[in-house]
Every structure is written in structure tokens, then in C-alpha cells.
Give the backbone structure.
Amino acid sequence: MIKVNGKRLISDLRALAQFGKTGHGVHRLSLSQADISARAWLLQRMTEAGLEARIDGLGSVVGQTPGVSRAVLIGSHTDTVPGGGWLDGAMGVIYGLELARALLETGDTAAGGIDVISFADEEGTYANTLGSRYYVGAVTEDELRSAASVGGESLSDALKRAGYAGTRARLDRNRHLAYLEAHIEQGPRLEAEGKRIGVVTGIVAMRRTEVVFHGQADHAGTTPMRLRKDAGAALFTFAKATTAAFRSIAASDTVWNFGRVVFEPGAGNVVPRKASVLIEYRDPDVEVLDAMESAIGDAIEEVNAKGKVRGEAHRNFDLPPARMDAVLAAAIEQAAGALHVPAIRMPSGAGHDAMHLAQHLRTGMLFIPSIGGRSHDTAEDSTEADIVLGANVLAGAVQSILAAG
Amino acid sequence: MIKVNGKRLISDLRALAQFGKTGHGVHRLSLSQADISARAWLLQRMTEAGLEARIDGLGSVVGQTPGVSRAVLIGSHTDTVPGGGWLDGAMGVIYGLELARALLETGDTAAGGIDVISFADEEGTYANTLGSRYYVGAVTEDELRSAASVGGESLSDALKRAGYAGTRARLDRNRHLAYLEAHIEQGPRLEAEGKRIGVVTGIVAMRRTEVVFHGQADHAGTTPMRLRKDAGAALFTFAKATTAAFRSIAASDTVWNFGRVVFEPGAGNVVPRKASVLIEYRDPDVEVLDAMESAIGDAIEEVNAKGKVRGEAHRNFDLPPARMDAVLAAAIEQAAGALHVPAIRMPSGAGHDAMHLAQHLRTGMLFIPSIGGRSHDTAEDSTEADIVLGANVLAGAVQSILAAG
């Protein structure tokens, strides 16, 4: 029976949060000095726990239960966005550390072990979800050569600077029974619905479409309304029609965002020559996204049919959905039930390392509540009680997965 | 009988356009070297024409018909916006020069003379319509002390650099019978309606209102639609309601522009925390602007009533209307009629030095067509035939004004 030590778990999380600490949160960009120090600390904690641990050639920290041929893989990432939270990624890794340590403490690894991984650069300082994509063979050597930070440092220079030169870790299908990732929700839903565990059914598909309207810049005082080719007014009309269509298409978990709007030249006395909007839309079901994308096209056609302004759409991002394994989801749900914890099944609206693992290995995820839904912000938080509870639920799930073999 | 020399008029305009020439247009910011050189050239041309001319302490170039106690004042400005047109402002000044010169050539100034002025800094490199506002006593010493360019140079340093230190010119009510300003239309209306002269009835009133919505930044993947406080969506709703209200309020000459829209933080995956829009609206009638401003407030209240996002409006600019003198307008219209030129009465949707003069002296304006309505652009243009025709119409008007006394 794996017994989670809640105090030790919280203590490790608090210790990790010291690396790059900023206010209540953490600023620990991939391959920054704080990140490198945090990885060294994690390597040491894994080793102290009795794991065979190393940092691989991309910076992923991997720890394996010794003397076993089969193991559940538990992990996430320990890098953060600029001014991020202390739990995003870190919690999933420290859950792995605590559960592997607790399993070794039982002295019984007959049913299999627990391996732990902190994937490199999930937040994409050099390349988005680099470690997990490499782990499943989804990164080309070309991408590794060309990857660079916004500041201009190449990934290979950064890795040399960090001294990471070991073999790059890869998924071992013969060894790994499943991949489990725990994460804070990064949204308000668990809190709003009074639940403490989210059993993730899948990571939603996402698309981004940039819509651009081309009109004509004119003096906004001297040009009669009827003679204008107003790209901004076209964008407003488009947004209204698209929003109405999205509402009628939307399923229960559909979300969308008109997150960026730019008018050019952007002056009070000049009719907008150009207006663009970036639309991001997500749903577990690709067919819903197809319908939304069609609605965007229809709304553009309606504007274009008036013959004054010309709109066009560019899909510039398309992420397929990742299905979580039903048996693993049931194991997480049952583990929550055994602890009498209110849980719900829900999709993940955000991307995670798990979405890449899920294409190659059965994968499960659980969420714990985010206070106020805050995420990618130093204000991100969860209660210690929820953090410990999540680890206990995950322990229950791991136990049943190992028992099932 | 004042006889306009069309060739000389075009030749002077082409000569002036060499100062700061860029492509088809002119880049001649106030107190730039090109502007200083252009003013020196203009001073010389005025003097050669027989005017008593000087550059005043703010850079306004003034030329007076000698030996008269009464005169019609004709002018505009010779500075330009960045990358502006060759006629905007310049044409009104060179009309003055040509008409004053042609009057002196008649040898008959018994009915009065023509004074010419190129007002300093109409385009506001240091202070908007500086010369004309100072001329009518609407600039404080405080403003003169604090005025500076975007580049950080103070007006007083720039004036020292230019060597402008003379007495600053002021309106002389005992001398000046009227102020006349000719200008390209800066809009497409004359061309669209097949007219060659616009008789300006007034310069419209204008307001600018900045509307800001405050919501909450949230992860656009993990936050259900119903739990969002989306400042951007609120702005779209507001824009739709406001546009509909504006359409029902609008009189024949009402115009408005949603020219600048900013979403913050402006990322695809973050629900907009803040969204703002700058609305500019113009009409000859202040009551129409009052109704539009009320409609803005009503639309904000509608959004606020939903209790998710809080909107607020700031009026940050309020320009009163300027009425053109009816007798002068009739004189311009009759002069056009005498030449069998198709003319229409129309308001000016753009501001001009004339709007300040009109508060203190009876004022008239005429427009000639802008090809394609282009303005504040190097592509700005008019035909030479229309330029010469405008000068002939103005000459006819001046003659009747002088005759009336």
C-alpha cells in the first residue's frame, strides 16, 4: 500500500518553488539559471529517494525505479512561463517523486515500479513541449538545430551552457504501462462546481484562425459614411455574425476567444485600412471545430459580398485532440470515490505533455482546483489539502494500475 | 479686375513643393529645415510681389498690401504632416500670394488690399494650429512654454534654432475685412458628385470619446464561456449597439469612426482583460453630437447591467463648430456661378486655421476636388485646371468683398 507523506510532498513543492521565486509565484524559464539549479535539486531528490536518476541531453530529468522491468510513468514539467505559478507542472513532477519514494518505502515492487520524469521546456522558451515530444519521437533533428529563444540564444548553445549532454530519454514501450500526469486545473470549473478532483477525459483539439479585412484608409472627417471602405466596421460585423454562429454550434465544452484585435493605422481620424482578429477555438470533437471554421468562412463571405472590404482567413495552428485512456480514467475516478472525494469528468482546455504521450501510450490525467481559476500568473494557487488529496487519489489509481499489470 | 496668372500660380506651387519633396508629395514638418527654407522662399516671393512681408516670432509668414488701411486676409499653412500632399495648406497660401500680386498689378487698391498669411504649425508638430490660434489670441504663454515635438524639442528651442524672433502677428480688426481660405477638399465628395467647387458652410464640431471595458484575463482554453469576464466581447456588443444608435441619430453630414481598438493582453489564449476603442464623431450641429454621446453612454450602461464587465467613457476632445459667414459663402457661390462652375455647399469635416479665425472675423472657405479623395498622403492631388479654377473663383469673391467694403 503506497502511503503518501503529505508533509514531505508539500515540503518538496515549497523547496522547488524557491528556484526562481518571484512574489507568490515562480519565474523559471527553461534553461535559465533557476531552471538549471531546480533540475540539479530534483536529480538529487530522486537519487535520495532511491531512484536511478539522470538529466538527459535536452534537460529532461528522469528517475527510474531500480530492479523492475515494468513501471507506471508519472510526470509533467518544472519550467514555468514568465511570472508563472508554483504548481503548474511542478506538482505533477513532485507527485511522481513522492509516489515513487512511497512505493520504494513499501519494499514491494513486485507488481512494477514508478518512473518519474520532468520533461524539458514544456512552456516553449526554446520549443514548445520539447521534452515530451522528443520522448515520443515527434521532434526532428532540424527542429533541434533551429530552435532558439525569443532572446536569440539557440537551443544547442543553451544546452551546452547547461552542460546537458547525456543520451536523450525516449519512451520505452516494453517498460511503461501507462503515463499519468496530475496538474492544477488552470481554470475555475472545479471551484465553481464544488469538486476537488477533475478526471480528465481528453485534451481538447484547438485551432487558431487569423482573419484579416482589407479596406481603405480615409480621412474620418471628410469621407461620407457611404463612400468608406471601413475594415474596422467590417470586423465588427464579422465578429457579431461569427459569435452568433459559434453559440448555435457550441457543445457543452466548446470555448472560443477573440483574443487579439488590431486596427491599422489605428488613429482616431483615419478610417481603418486594415483590421485583424485572432480567433482561438477548442472542443474535444474535431467536427465541432470544423463547423466553427466553416462559420468563420461564411461570415467573411457575407462581408465580402457587400463588395467594399475584402476579408480572408488563415488557419495558423491546428492541434488534434488527445484522448485519455478510459481504463485509467476509471481508475482515477474509483480512487477518488474510495476516498469519498467529489470528482467530475472534464476535458482539459489547455495543452499538456500528456497530449503527446497519449498518442503512444495509454495516458491519464487528473486535475486539482485552481483558486479563483488563476493560471500562468504568480497568483496561481491551490490549497495544501487539495494538493495532498490529489496525490492520494493518484496513489490509489497507480496501485490499481500496477495490480492490473 | 484681378487677373489670376494660372501659369505663375502653378509654377509657385511646384516651386514650394520642392521643399521637403518626397515622391509625389511633401514631408515638411513645422520648423524642420525644409519648412524653414520654404518660409524663407515664401518671404522672398511675397517681397518680389510688392508686399510688405516678414516672418513673425512663431514662424508665420505675413505679407501686407502697402498703402491700404483695409484688406481681405487670405491664407492657410505651408507645413505638412509626415509624408503629406503638395497642396494641403500650400494652395491656400499661394492663392493669397497670386491674388495679392494680381491686385497690385492692377495698380488699383482704392477699395482695399489683400494680405497673405502662412500660419505656423497648423499640423501640430509642436502645437496644433499654433499660428492661427495665436493670431486670434487663443494661445497662452504657458502653452508656448510647454509646447514640444514628439521628438522632445521644445517649441522655444526650435524657434531659436530657426531664428524667428520678431513680433508675433495678431489679427487687426480695423484692417481686416474678412478671412478667406481655399483648400483641397481632403475627401471624395466633390469628385463623387461631379462638382468642382465646394462652398464651405461651416467646419463641423467634433468629439472624441475613449471607451474602456475592464474584464478579467483568464485562460481561453480552461475557462468555460459562462464564467468569463470578457472585455473584448463586451466591446463587440457595445460597438454593435452604438453603431445602430448612430445610424438612427445621423443627419446628412454626420460621420463617425471607430478608429483605434486595443485588446489587452492581446494574446490568442488569454481572455481580454481590457478592451478600448477610440470613437471620433462629427456633425455641424452640436445637438447631434450630444445625442451620439448619450448613445455611447446608453450602450455602456447596457453592457454594465450584465454585471460582468465594467465600461467607462472619457470624452478627451471637444471641438466646437465654426460657422462660415453667409455673405462670404454667397460671394464665393456667385463667383463660381459667374464662371459657370458646378459648385455645392458643404460642411468641412476636417479642421482648418479658418475655424479659429471664424470666431473673431467673418470667414469664408472654398474647396477644390481631391483626386480619389486622398489626403494626408503623398498621393494627394488635384488637377491643374481645378487649381487654377479655384483661384479664379476666389478672385471673383475677393473682388465683390472689396467692392462691398
About this structure: DSSP finds twelve helices and 15 strands in chain A. Chain A touches chain B through 58 residues (CB under 8 Å). The domain at 205-319 of chain A is CATH 3.30.70.360 (Alpha-Beta Plaits). The two ends of chain A are 16 Å apart (CA to CA).
